[in-house]
Write a structure and sequence with these properties.
The chain has seven helices and 13 strands. By secondary structure, the protein is an alpha+beta fold.
Length: 264
């Protein structure tokens, strides 16, 4: 009797294991969120005028995506002007924008307000309103100033092309178990050399369900890198070279105009 009970228990255990195995095999594959940027190194040469970045990867079938490229938040000081006597525009002082990224480029599969609620947008710093919530603005005396100046700061950064938000620009290709995506980003030449963060969020039903990220570097190379290094490490020599080059250029222009003759 005891052997019969043991044998029956073993049969049930075997059947359960087989059933569990079949369930695992038949369960839908969850696609991991991935993100790659090309090129991973953007070289600044003498003819540099920005670059074209391609960001690709995979995501779940029913997920919206938000892609953010940014630098580490820091402080930024800007001068401002005001009318004196209601007539003349003059520099009045400086404003210190604290905890703001120098570069902020954002792309998404749809409108941010549709993808995520305001609280989540602030948490992940998605959109200009979330940047304003995390930042502070002070005058030269350390006193907080009117929030309108942050809007002016955003406009200035947009004119420099280092801030931009493009909604609905991520292209997806749908598959049965996962999607692939691609987005092209115009990298501005105004952005300084450095390492930049690429953050990708997958969103489902108003909640961030997965995250991925990578980095890329913008770096001076060639003659530009050598001159930049000289300017910092051998400032006197760099100054002498600049004067010599300016004098040589002036002499060359003078010779050209002398050969061409003056006006009659």
């Amino acid at each position: 009797m005891k052997r019969s009970v043991i044998a029956t228990a073993r049969r049930w255990a075997a059947m359960a294991a087989v059933s569990l195995g079949l369930f695992v095999l038949s369960a839908p594959t969850v696609s991991a969120l991935t993100c790659e940027v090309s090129p991973s190194l953007v070289p600044i040469t003498m003819s540099y005028h920005g670059a074209k970045l391609t960001i690709t990867g995979t995501s779940g079938v029913n997920e919206d995506l938000v892609l953010k490229i940014s630098s580490v938040p820091a402080d930024s000081v800007m001068k401002y002007k005001a009318k004196v006597g209601g007539v003349f525009w003059m520099k009045k002082g400086s404003l210190d924008f604290k905890n703001v990224p120098g570069v902020y480029l954002l792309n998404s599969t749809a409108d941010l307000s549709r993808i995520l609620p305001a609280g989540a947008r602030n948490q992940y710093q998605l959109g200009y309103e979330s940047l304003a919530a995390a930042a502070s603005v002070e005058d030269s005396n350390g006193e907080p100033v009117d929030g309108k100046w942050f809007n002016e700061f955003i406009r200035f950064k947009e004119r420099e092309m280092v801030y931009d938000i493009q909604e609905g620009t991520i292209t997806r290709r749908h598959g049965e178990e996962s999607n692939t995506f691609e987005v092209m980003v115009d990298w501005p030449y105004q952005a300084p050399p450095g390492v930049y963060n690429v953050e990708l969020l997958a969103v489902s039903n108003g909640t961030v369900v997965d995250q991925a990220g990578t980095t890329f570097e913008v770096q001076r190379v060639g003659i530009g890198a050598a001159l930049s290094k000289m300017a910092f490490e051998q400032a006197a020599l760099y100054g002498i070279m600049a004067v010599v080059i300016a004098l040589a250029a002036g002499l060359a222009v003078g010779v050209i105009f002398k050969k061409g003759g003056g006006s009659h």
